[in-house]
Amino acid sequence: MLLDDLKNRSESQCELCRSSENLDIYEVPPTSNPSLDNSILICSVCKAQIEKTEQIDPEHWKVLAETMWSEHLPVQVVAWRMLSRLRNEAWAANNLDILYLDDETLEWAKKTGDHEAEATVEFHQDSNGTRLFEGDTVVLIKTLDVKGSSISAKLGTVVKNIRLVPDNTEQIEGKIEGQTIVILTKYLRKG
Ligand SMILES: [Zn+2]
Predict the structure, then answer these.
(1) How does strand 158-159 pair with strand 163-164?
(2) Distance, CA 44 to ligand 1 centroid (Å)?
(3) Per-residue pLDDT of the chain (191 residues; tens, 9 = 90+)
(4) For the whole model, what pTM was predicted?
């Protein structure tokens, strides 16, 4: 079983940060058939930051200076991607300079485009800076003028089961009086 093989390879440690907590398989994208050659064992903290569901914490990744020397290519690829995302940090830029990947591996590492992405991730937040998630309930903190509609979106209106507008962290969608409207996150707070 792949998980057992990965645990053997890594001595049951996260192959990126060496944590032994909440370990799971990470298939290094793009992959089709998960195997030891394209998967690594990582912890939930690393996974969330790699997959951008949590903000990146540069301190967490300083250990890459050691773990990037892994002989295993998928570990090298993810280390290279994360160092690239952190390239504004001097330590990360320095390590990136000395991390040598052969041509084929470098090509794989570049495939996701992560190396060109900013380190920080933007999330949907309410007017108080509290993070919003799909399905949340929010309350309007301002009476909204919904153009071309008779909807009354008054201050204090509760909007259940919101949707986050992809690619725009300043907007959510919610239903008021049965109609879906776009609402600016600065006009609401988490209910
Ligand atoms: Zn980890």
Answers:
(1) unpaired
(2) 7
(3) 999 999 999 999 999 999 999 999 999 999 889 999 999 999 999 999 999 889 899 999 999 999 999 999 999 999 999 999 999 999 999 999 999 999 999 999 999 988 887 777 789 999 999 999 999 999 999 999 887 777 889 999 999 999 999 889 999 999 999 999 999 999 999 98
(4) 0.76
- Helix (H), strand (E) at residue 189: strand 188-190
The DSSP bridge partners found for residue 139 are: 158, 189
If you measure from the C-alpha of residue 47 to the centroid of ligand 1, how many angstroms do you get, rounded to a whole number?
Answer: 7
Residue pair 140/183 in contact (Cβ under 8 Å)? The answer is yes
Cα 168–chain centre separation: 15
**Ligand 1 midpoint to CA 64 (Å):** 10
Report the separation in Å between the CA atom of 183 and the middle of ligand 1, taken as the mean of its atom positions: 37
State in Å: Cα 113 to ligand 1 middle: 21
**Amino acid of residue 142:** K
Q: How far is the CA of 124 from the centre of ligand 1 (A)?
A: 25
